[in-house]
Amino acid sequence: MSTLHSQTGFALQLTDVTKSFGEISVMKGVNLAIKAGERHAVIGPNGAGKSTLFNLISGMFPVTSGDIALNGRSIVGLPPYQINRSGLARSFQITNIFPRLSVFENLRIGVLARHNVRFGLFQPVSRMRRINDEARAILAEVGLDARAADMAGDLTYSEQRALEIGMTLTTGADVILLDEPTAGMSREETAQAVELIRSVTEGKTLLMVEHDMSVVFSLCDRVSVLVYGNILATDTPKAISENREVQEAYLGEETAS
């Protein structure tokens, strides 16, 4: 693992990150710096490498070369659980919950894991007041109080996505990665999801992959455009929308489709 980075002020920093699968190069020297406390989106056409980028950051895939720093320290080579404990949590494109547990139990499991508490015969989890209080607080934060006792698998799609966001919060991470959090939602559900994300990431650092440009431009402070393994541009949403190269590479395709 690399040494401590000298630069400060960045919650997440990628330096010359490459990733190859055999002879296929997917990431081609990505440089990306996310300021602490900002909301940052990565956009790009299908096949650009956005999910691979998230998998590299969260430790699901090893980098081929380059470095990734979280709050100034390299996380290259760390397993996902250690990266999570270092302060980074992520969601996935496909909802990743425990469908046969209640909504409350899903959140409580995450809180238990953060406190490194295990179930025990002589210490029933129902009596762990601090754990239960924290889970209830997150339950309220994501607006699922009324569904606390319901099985997670019985929630609507948008409610399951809200639960998954809640599960990222149980880790106490200050850097949140959301992979297409509004995919498959109606316009009304999307609007509700945006407000939820805005609320729960207040004071945290958000990096998201999102195809809905209205979501990106209304929610994020900065946007990076990833095109076939390269960062084409990073700027404010307005500047990105007016960038001719970006329009030709990606936004033009979205407008034409």
UniProtKB/TrEMBL annotation:
UniProt cross-references to InterPro entries, sorted A to Z: AAA+_ATPase (IPR003593), ABC_AA/LPS_Transport (IPR051120), ABC_transporter-like_ATP-bd (IPR003439), BCA_ABC_TP_C (IPR032823), P-loop_NTPase (IPR027417)
Domain of life according to the entry: Bacteria
Domain ABC transporter: 12-253
Keyword Cytoplasm in record: no
GO CC, any one term: plasma membrane
PROSITE patterns tied to this protein: ABC_TRANSPORTER_2
Molecular function in Gene Ontology: ATP binding; ATP hydrolysis activity
Chain segments annotated as transmembrane: none
PANTHER family xrefs: ABC TRANSPORTER ATP-BINDING PROTEIN (PTHR45772:SF3), CONSERVED COMPONENT OF ABC TRANSPORTER FOR NATURAL AMINO ACIDS-RELATED (PTHR45772)
Protein name as it appears in the record: ABC transporter ATP-binding protein
